[in-house]
Amino acid sequence: MEQVCGLMARLGGLQRGAASALGILLLAGAMTQSIQIASAQVPDQPGSQTSTIEIGDTTYVVHEYELAGSFTFTPPDDVTEVELLIVAGGGGGGSAEGFSTAGAGGGGAGGVVIQPAFPIGMGTVTVVVGAGGSGGSGGNVSGSNGSDSSFGGLIALGGGGGAGGNVSGNAGGSGGGSRDTTGGAATQPGSAAGGLGHRGGNFPGSPAGAGASGGGGAGSAGGAADGAA
Asked: Could you tell me the pTM of the whole model?
């Protein structure tokens, strides 16, 4: 069975906005024991690096997509379904430089989509790796949302940008951190593909000395500098 794995690292801005890292898609396919592993049987896929790994008695061919962009994946003739884990680009952190001593919101993580057995045909499939959002810069500027990642019609939504100033973080796969009444909303769970995402954290209060808040993630909502979510 082919397997697509997505890994995404996220940097959340506090005082200054920080850009967020892009999503990474890995594609691994189990090879039957009757197949001899040779370079001709492990074809490169455009935009990916190809390798093999051993897990127990099974050999996997791994295609790793490390750069943001759009690519095509051509499945081997005997592949009929794939196991998918797709992660979008994370949101950029906000900037609160206009408040001098106040914090800002961290960017939300990219949405996560998991499909244990996704049917696949004989044609090529479009693979998109989403880039991370840009961090806010100067004054009180919110970060931008990360870009979506996808495999065919399954879409992981980009993370929400973190708040700059006394505003809410952006909605996204996981929401951005806020300085308002509530954190940025998570849009991934209610999307057509389903998946994982949580609301961003929130730290309400006056500008002077107000704390920072983190973006949401796949496992839980974002937190705040004083531990409040």
From this structure: 0.79
